[in-house]
Amino acid sequence: MHSFGNSLPGCVSTAEGEGCMSFEERVVRALGKQRADRVRAAARQLMTLADHDAQSTQAVVHINVPLHAHNAHEATTELANLLNAAAPDETWTFVTISHPDGTWTGKASPFMQDTSRLGSRDWIAHFALSDLHMRLAAWRLTQLWRAAELAEQTVESLGCWRLLVAAACSRSLLEGAAALTHETTLLHQAWDTFKQAGPPTTASLTQFSADLNNRLAKLQYASRVGQSSGRPPVLQSTNVMTYINKLAKNTTTVDVLDLYEWLCDAVHPSFGSATTYTVLRASDRPKTHAIEQYARHPLQPLAASGYAVQPTVAHAAADALVLAAEVVHNSLSLVKWTMDDIGLTAEIQSLNRLPYAGSSDQPPQRSDPCPCGSGRKYKRCVHRWGQPGTPPPAAEQ
């Protein structure tokens, strides 16, 4: 008769705030040293990014105000009267917009700086793109926070050999990374095309900002809650397998579908879940029967057996985290670049009195280092209408 110890591997931390970034020897042996080093480094990278970035932000959505006016003068007067009646003590910046069908609308903000030298098209650009700038900043941060939290919990669970939790967190992280890289590419391509077309018109600005704000709204608020009861949400989220398949198609370093299938199998009541408690499978010499050994806390007996059963779920969780961390890092860098390019091209990064991640107190001066991090002076960088919306190569100042 065999007996197994019930001790759990301890979660050891070697630095304050680092969490379970240090694995005990049994965990390192189960994962393999190279895999253990990679997964800890990947998680640490995401956690460090999140710790060093903004810890909060805010966003404003400026809503179109329908007007009864028939010309520019009437529209300006009507909107001014509405604002004065609603908030007479507030300082408003506003713009009125005519539409092809002859109607007029307005947008107003108590947050924008009063810069009366700007023309109407500039103001339309500011209203159209400032909302997008703030929402991109919020979306980027929430994606970073989510990835860092899931990565931290995956590594902590691996360190404590709670493989079901590790698999669930790593699976969610991989799904998020797959969605993030696809949607980031689409957002960036849309901005690149719009920017290269040159100085925008009122109509193109209105359409572009509406399209991208709608896409961001779907990324932030889409759901599948209620679908099974016949009450589908207004914004329905994309099936996650669409994103996973696209990531698999574009990844050559690992088998994304195999990793994902193992993680799904682990969190479902199926074979993958059962393997997380399996210590040993062995048959006797005359082949009359086989012995299977299970343990609630399997790491100690698994080590004692010489790791006779490969911890496939643990390996999948670790490898998925490493891949997801790389994808998230690259995608968020592109989001940051796109956000900075929008802000600098439209000159809105210092326009709002409302502080948010990605805003600045003052616009850059011509000879200042460009805030985008290209290494160029601002006057020599690419933040101009008609220029590509892609990051420039590093250049000498």
Order of the strands making up the biggest sheet: 1-3-2
List unreliable stretches of 5+ residues: 1-10, 12-19
The class by helix and strand makeup works out as mainly alpha
Instruction: Please report the distance between the alpha carbons of the first and last residues.
Output: 75 Å
- Which oligomerization state do the chains in this entry correspond to? single chain
Helix content: 40-55%
Total DSSP helices? 11
Beta-strand share of residues: 5-15%
- Helix-strand topology string: HHEHEEHHHHHHEEHH
Q: What is the number of independent domains?
A: 3
- Approximate shape: elongated
What does this structure look like?
The protein has 397 residues and is mainly α. The chain has 3 domains: 25-56 and 127-271 and 312-380, no CATH class; 65-110; 277-310, no CATH class. Helices cover 51% and strands 7% of the residues. It is built from 11 helices and 5 strands, in the order H-H-E-H-E-E-H-H-H-H-H-H-E-E-H-H. The chain has helices spanning 25-31, 33-52, 72-86, 120-159, 163-196, 202-221, 240-249, 256-267, 271-275, 299-304, 312-345; strands at residues 65-67, 93-98, 104-109, 278-283, 290-294. Strands 1-3-2 form a 3-stranded antiparallel β-sheet, sandwiched between helices. A two-stranded antiparallel sheet has the order 4-5. Helix 4 packs parallel to helix 6. The model is unreliable at 1-10 and 12-19 (pLDDT under 50).
